[in-house]
Amino acid sequence: MSQFLRKLLSVTFLTLSISAFGAAAQPTVIRIAAPDQGAGSLPFPGGSPIAIVYTNKLLEEEFKRDGIEVQWTLFKGAGPAINEAFANRQIDFAYLGDLAAVIGRAGGLPTHLIAGANRGTNTYLAVPPGSTIKHFSDLKDKRIAVFRGTADQLAFDRALNEHGLTERDLRVINLDWSSARAALAAGQIDGTWSGSGLIALRTRGIAEIALSTRGGSLDATVQAGLVGADAFTAAYPEITTRLVKVFVKAAEWASQENNRQAFIDLLHKQSNIPADVFAGEYGDSDLKFRLSPRIDDFLVGRLSASVAEAKNDKLIRDSFDVNAWVDRRYVDQAVAQLGLQQFWPTFDAAGHAVR
Amino acid sequence: MKPISTAPNPFYPGLVTAPRVLIALVRRAVAPLIGLLAPLLIAVLWYVAAREQWMAPQILPTPGRVLQTAQDMLASGELLSNLAVSLRRLMFGLAAGVAAGVLLGAAMGVNRRVDALLRPTFSALVQVPTLAWIPLFMLCFGIGETLKLVVIIKAVLVPVTLHTRTGVRDVPPALRELSLVCGLSRWQCLRCLVLPAALPAFLIGLRLALSQAWLSLIVVELLASSEGIGYLMVNGRQLFQLDIVLVGIVVIGLVGLLMDRALQWLERTMLRWPRPSLAAYADSERASSGLGWLPPLLLLLLLLLLWQTASSAGWVSCHVLSTPLDVVHAFIAHMRDASLPQAWGASLLRDLVGLLLGGLAGFAAGLATGLWGPIERLFGPSLAALRQVAIFAWIPILTAWVGIGEASKISFVALSVFFPMLVATHSGMRNLSPALQEVAAVVGLNSRQRIFLLLLPGAAPAIFAGIHVSLVYGWIGTIGAEYFMSSGPGIGSYMINAEQMFQMEIVLSAMLLIGLTGVLLNLLGTRLENRYTAWRKIGIQA
To answer: pTM value?
Structure first.
């Protein structure tokens, strides 16, 4: 009897180890999450090269020959849901804004930031038409809505600081995005601070954009990146590099000035958000800066600042070292394999190109 | 808390002998402790699950961690001050909502014409999720405390109105006739007849209202608020500090349980008269025949006219409230390009599956706790505590169990239906007349017969009122699931997307569709109720 049991056990063990070995070579599925920022009936993972990858099914194509399935999950109001999905081991990669990624890491998620996605993203102040707010100094004692605990809040605080103000100089009201829009239309607030989606309100005649971070210091802007779960990247480094390579290729296409219009058209078509929202957001900024996937001093510097500010505002309990969190291997390899080392300059902490 | 068959008859207490008194005393002392067994079990399970890391520590923090957080929040005064803010909002909202619900429900219960007139509009309006109302509410009530109260009132209004209506409607006609014969004045009739007869149903509504008020705190405290226990929980999830969410769950559970028990005590002390055996009621046969559909239609038209004038005459900003004509245009356009029907179909399917699963589970649980005293004593308190906690707070744990796909949305809907159904079924069974129980005992019905011949028919009005309430919450849960979880097709996502661009005519046309669906589902509920309680109409010449 025990002989039989031992045999059974060893067979089971053998089968298990074979399947484990098989799994180590190649996953059966790659699970990616992103926020859903669409305004129409199609899902839209945000106004960055990731939208190209998603819309044109570039990952599906890349991994089809290996029989690896690619599973996208898009979340409304993404940050918390994506961090929970990481903790529940339901996703392998996610495209995340800086604060959400920082909050997840500070909460102890076993993840690394493996590539940049888009950076220098602006935030805006929408005011009712005919508002007297023209400068930051006009904001004193005004009722301004911000969604606390999101990247908007950090960006708002930075922009205020830059102009010698703090939240205490005005009456800040905590409202989620759709409530803030409703309150603005109902004339209950003097303005709301949020992302480029507010530009769409101008098109509808509900609001004007009075102030923004555009033209100011890059310090007040928002960064985003690709975050990978250690369990996946450690087990399948080659697959991870190939995945990052697909993103890098898309970023290369979008970074070229003569593709600007085509890129904006693609974003508009997939999101159902007016094209002038994207055109306004990217403005005349250097696309090679905005869309560089490289993890350079600028990205690391801004993320470190976000960690410090989040700690200071009690948004996270423990701070951490961003240098140990970023993992440049995959994106560096991808850039090298594609021969794009010279394509994107690296940017220093202030956002100036250094070759 | 008395088991249905073995309790000493409260009307003949003298028959109890000395040793039985002793046993009863011991039982009494032990009974409340049994209720602690289930929470204890949950705590042990939680401890083991956290220690063995069945779930990630970020999703399910250890009890020790949560206790530590609770202590920190207590020490800093954060917990109590936020609880005080929430309780204040809860009390005011509850008081106003219950008052309005009683008036409305009583009017609908007393007068069939009023009922026929108001109910279609009522069920259409209340089914539209709060999310969609907010721009309009903000326009009317600002963004201060009034707005928060209005949101709570809206949540409270539904169960109170529907259950009061049932209670008032079901006053036994024989008693009504008797009161006429005796020449009771209107006031006497109200005080001696309607009030006592309607009280049990009203109290069910009140208990449901209490949990709804707690649930709506989550929505309310996101609206221009940085305080309150709901805010703490929303913010805790936002910042991925789920230990704070769990502290919120425990606090709301405990306070909610206390309130629920207080209501039950109220129920026991107030309902001292023998409960009438369930009576037939006069059906609205006459109202439904002929031109019965005309008045409610006229009311709807009147509302539409008011709306059209309000927006075209510029009483309200047309950005917030598009004109009905614009809405109809948008409605037709999006019905044509199939985007609206597709979204609607996806949501409806989700809603129906969730309703079915949650409704059946709630019904079964209500049946079990209503039938067997031990089960009630074991799980009753825990269920009453859990009921108060918004499903929102369970999302991380829910998705850890059932994944991030469609299943999590359906379980969200099912959960939002489960508790109203549980309460309605359970209370319906417990409010049965002891006289009927005695008859059942005398006739010697076996337990199967008792369930099907006595308990279920007897509890039917309460169960159907529960179904009505569930229909409303099923829709609200569906929209909530689409709002809080992974995106996909659905009318909630559709509205959120349109709201992002502030295309109010699209939002309103989706509201229109949800409202219409609400009316249809409600009609279905009424038909079902009439059909399965048809026996109650026998012998009544209304």
So the answer is: 0.82
